[in-house]
Amino acid sequence: MKKMMIIAVVVVAVTTIAWLIFVKKPADESTVVSSGFGGQLFDKIRQNPADKLPETNPFGKDLNPYEKAYTNPFK
Fold this sequence. Notes:
Elements: H1 2-22, H2 36-46
């Protein structure tokens, strides 16, 4: 019975130490190297798809394109 307790404690200790040593922390975005196929996919995901949308605001555009081209002499 004591041998099994000692083996269990040793297994838990070894597992815990191995987990603390070999588990890596996630890298920051600034340290990620974008090379290879995974890096290319990561770069595509990081891009904002809303940047490619066309401008659809009618008030931000010139509403009357002929206003500057022709002036009415009877105005």
